[in-house]
Amino acid sequence: MADEEDEEARYQKKMRKRVTEAIKNAQMEQQKKEIMRQFLDAKAYERLMNIRISNYELYNQLVGMVVSLAQGNRISSKITEEQLMSIVQRMTYKKESTIEFKHK
């Protein structure tokens, strides 16, 4: 009986920890969104949210980039969708590989 109570207590503690982490993550995500609303115009923000859905890692990189630009006072006005897409292209650029055939 005591073993079952200990197991139940451990389960409760684990669940509380998970809920706390979920709340913390949701608050951090909300803060990111608020910061992005300050520095992106409406279309750029909408594009960023689409990127968030399709590629969360790229979204986090973009948020980091925008925050660093803002901290360095390198943003004079809100970032437009075109500027955001330019940043995305620079971040995701991969040199195209070529295949060469050498004949003997």
Fold blueprint:
Elements: H1 2-39, H2 42-54, H3 56-71, H4 81-92
Q: What structural category do the secondary elements indicate?
A: mainly alpha
Q: Would you tell me the overall average pLDDT?
A: 89
Strand content: under 5%
Task: Count structural domains.
Answer: 1
- Shape verdict: flat
What does this entry look like structurally?
- The structure is a single chain.
- By secondary structure, the chain is an all-alpha fold.
- It has one domain (2-89): Helicase, Ruva Protein, domain 3, CATH 1.10.8.140.
- 76% of the residues lie in helices and 0% in strands.
- The protein has four helices and no strands.
- It has helices spanning 2-39, 42-54, 56-71, 81-92.
- Helix 2 runs parallel beside helix 4 (81-92).
Précis, in short:
The protein is 76% helix and 0% strand. It has 104 residues and is an all-alpha fold.
Features:
mainly alpha, Helicase, Ruva Protein, domain 3, 4 helices, 76% helix, 104 residues
